[in-house]
Each structure stands twice: as C-alpha cells, then as structure tokens.
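Long-time lurker. I teach an intro course on protein structure, and each term I like to show students one example going from raw sequence to a predicted 3D structure in token notation. This year I'd like something fresh instead of my usual example. Would anyone be willing to generate the tokens for the chain below so I can use it in lecture? Attribution to the forum is fine with me.
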Amino acid sequence: MTTPAPQLPSDQYPHVVKPPFRRPLAAPKLSSMSPTAPAAPHGAYGPVTIIVVATGNRNTIDRAIESARRQLPAPAVVVVCDEADEDCTAYLRQTRQGGDGVALLVENAAVPALLNRALQTQESEFIGILHGGDLLHAGFLESMLAELAQAPEAGAVFSDYVEAWEPHGLQRLAALDLPEQQKLAVSEDSFVPSLSLTLFRRRTLVSLGGFDAGLPLAYERELLARVARSGEETFRHVERPLVQRSMHGRLPLIDKEDWSREMARAWTERFGAPASCLESFRARSRAFGRQMERLARPPQRSIAAVVATRNRLALLKEALISIDRQTVQPDEIIIVDDGSTDGTWEWLQSLDRAGLRIAQTSGNLANAGARNLGNAMAKSEIIAALDDDDAWYPDYLESIRRAFALEPEPCFVGAETLYRIGTRDEVIRHRYRLPTERTDDLLTALLGRFPYSTTLVAFTKERFDAVGGYDPALRRSEDYDLYLRLLAAGEAFLDNPPVFITRPLAMRRIAELGRDAEQLAELSRTSTDKALEKFFATDLGQEYRALEPAVRERHHRMLAAYFRDYLGVTAEKENGPPSGDGGPFLMTR
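-- Reply from a regular --
Happy to contribute to a lecture. Here you go:
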C-alpha cells in the first residue's frame, strides 16, 4: 500500500524545495469529485476552468489572472496559492475576494496537492493550468477547444509559445513538435515543456489520478509524460504561439540537483528509464543555468557599428554621438560616405578615434551597396547598422550583445523604436511584437510584424555573408528583403528564431516628405513586391505560396498608412520623451 506524501514544512516552499525521496512512486489518486464552485459558461464546447498557480510577484500573478479572465468562451478561474507564501496569500485574499468571478483556494500544501484539490472542486469538461508568470494570448482558449473538437479521442492539446526572458525584455518564438509516436517520445522527458501550454479534457486527468503530490518539483513533466503514454494519440498540437511563457519563472528558486534527482527517480520508477537518465537531467539543468549566466554576463563578442551616409553631415554627427554614448562600446565604427558633396568626407578624415574606419564611394551605390561595403570591411562577429539620421539609446549595443547570448543563436535581433516626424514635437512609439494573435500561419504574422528599419536590427557577419548581403538592385526595402532571406535560410525562423527587445532602443527621424511622398511610396511598393517575389521563390516560400496575395495586400496597406500618416498602422502616440536620460533625440550637435 502506498504511503501518503509527507507534508512539506512551510519554510521550505516555495523558496528552495526539498523533495521527499523515501517512498516508491505509485499512481496518485484523486478523491471523489464533488463540485463546490459553479461551472463556467461554455458556449459550443462545454464548460472550461483555468487554474492559475500563484507563483511570482503580484504584477505577474495579476496579469496571468486577467489573461485567463479575458478568454472566450469565458472560463471559470480558480487561483491556487500555498498558504506558506504569506505575502502572496495576503495579497490575493485582499484583492480576489470581491466578487470578480475568481475563486481563491489557499491551503498549506505544495503545488501538486493544490492542483488536485482544485480539480476536486471543478466539474468543467476542460481544464487549463497557468503558472503565475505566464500569459495566455487572445484566442488561446478558442483555438485549443476547436482543435480538441476535431479529435474527440484526444485527451489534451498544446500550443507553441513565446519565450519571455525578463527582466531583459527579450522575446522569441518557440515552435514545438508533435512526435509521431508519443509514447516513445517521453522516454527521457516530456515533449511538452509546461502545463501553461496545455488544455486537458478533465476525464483524462481524472483517469490518470491527477498530479503526484509526492513530486513537488517533477509533478508537471511527470504528469505530461503520463498523459502522452496513456494512448496512441493523446495529444494534439496547435502550431501557433498562444502563450507567453516566463523563462525565469520558479526555476532560479529551485535547487537544480534536487530537481534532477526527482525527475530521474520519476522516470526510472514509473517509465522504466535507465539510471543513467539522472546525468541527462543534470545536463539539462546545467544548460539552463548556463543560459541564465550568459544573459546576466553576456560573452564579450565583438561588435561593428556600420553607418552609410550621404549629404547629411549635421545628422551624421548626432548619430555618432549616440554611438559614443553606448554603455558597451563597439570594437569598430565603420562609416561609408556614398559620394557626399557637403563636406562629409573632409570632416570624417579629420576624426581621430580608436576603431574608426572610413571609406568613400563615387556616389552611385545607394543604401544597399554602401552598407554592403561597410559590412565587408567589418571584422567583428556582430554587425549593428545605424542610419545616418537616426540615433541609438545608450544601452542599445549592450542589449544586442545580451540577446545574442541566447541559445540557439538568433538569426537576427530587433528592437522597438521611437519616431520623431520632421520638426514636430510629437514623439511616436512603434511596437514590434512577435505574433500574439490567431493568424492563418506563423510566417504570415512574422512577415507583417518584425522590424523593417536598419537601425533596429543586428545580425552576425557570418549569417549576413551567407545570404549574400543586401540586394543592390533594390532602391528601397533592401533591409526588409535581407530579413526575409535571413529567416528563410535553413528555416531559421524555426531553428534560429529572431529575438525581439520589447522596449524602445532608438530614435528614428522621419522627414516630412511633402510632394515627394507619392513618388517614394510607389518606389517602396515596387521594392517590397520584389522582395516578396524573391522570398516566395525560395524553397521555404514555396510552402507558403498560397498566402502571397494576402501578404502583399497587408504590406500595401501598411505602406499606404505609413506615407499617409508618416508611420505604420501599429503606432502609438507617446506624451513626449520617456523618463530617464531623455534619449538620443535630445542630443545637440
């Protein structure tokens, strides 16, 4: 007979959890399910409950709860909290017992026991479990329910997700795979990394006995593995990012050796894995620890700041001031003067700065050719290009270097920006985000939502050279064309997805075009169409050929809005400059 799991001392959880290793594993049992909370409105699919595990700080817990409450069809929301976390318990009792439709379950128990208790209070047909640091995107519930409706035999569904590396403000896509043989795929771990990505049929959880309360660290992966082994095709997969997952979460608070031992114990005793799997789990734990260390102290990779210029000496000086103010100085500053006649070349020749290299052309290379020349001169690992009329915030290069510390290495790194239009006082923020809404395809969303501007994107010299650099035949949109090719090379958008920094790190200046706007708009449309034509001719593009008309239409609309309002359709007005040092747009010549 299986002995019950011992209670964890309140001073051990949730800080550093010391799991019990004294009893053999047995399938956990749930007591009879007598509902004590009302079922949620269910629409066409049946009632749904989302259980939010209160981990993290107050802000992240509130955001997780609200992301669950906003789902359609509207779910019941139950928040579970370990009473040992006194601050969290007090806050939730103060804020979540005011009739906002959120049920609160507080007990002196570890997370798996709390989840089992929450399951006992709900009779909803579908159950979602969300960790307090994670967020459900709009459309999560509807998409997951629709997928399960197509497969009545399936017991659960999971989605792709967006990794969020806080507090660094880094995000990137994580695309998962659904193995053909699900039972075999869990021999050394679950292929679903988090409960937050998953929606279960309640009958599946009940039939498996719920969570093992004796596994305070491994309960999540162990349950997901049991679900996968419970049938031939238990899981379904939605190939869209429907969850934002905090990559810090509880892991820094957990003793990684205890986690490795508990995982190995679960896999050997329950799934017949060899004892050597302990070293595999240790290696995974160490790899995550190294990733955290790399973000905290990024490797000192060399960076080249490359600027192409023509007849904008006054603005060029401001751009170079923003380079001088970087908290991480570039190893090289390369300036290509594309045939200026305003004294730019003479001024450049007078400069005496370490790492500065200059070149002059006859003036017919245009942006693509001048940038190619500058990048060819670079010897550094990372290339960060800066338009001569733009300026970086002081921590731009520091943030870029940190983003390239992520593994696998991103195919490029982009950031948000602020815009100043002409001589106006108005400052506008342009948000670039990974796809967070339901779309026909992941790539369609990427094509319309990653940064276009040279100033906002950095890449490695190796990848730049591998795709052939900028296309000199394009007079506009040469940067957009480059990013498409970086994404397409080796399906990098899946294997080496781009990383986005979710805060403004540059100020772009937009000239008021006046009578030249119509001519420039037509040139931009033509160049963008050529870039898309090249992309859809690639092997990857051929797979998405059916989407080409919709993608072209989207970009034509965006360009029309840009030239009508001087900015794209996703812009937001800001009330003046951000707080802090004021940003580079306050610099003087």
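Some talking points for your students: The radius of gyration is 27 Å. The chain has a mean pLDDT of 81.
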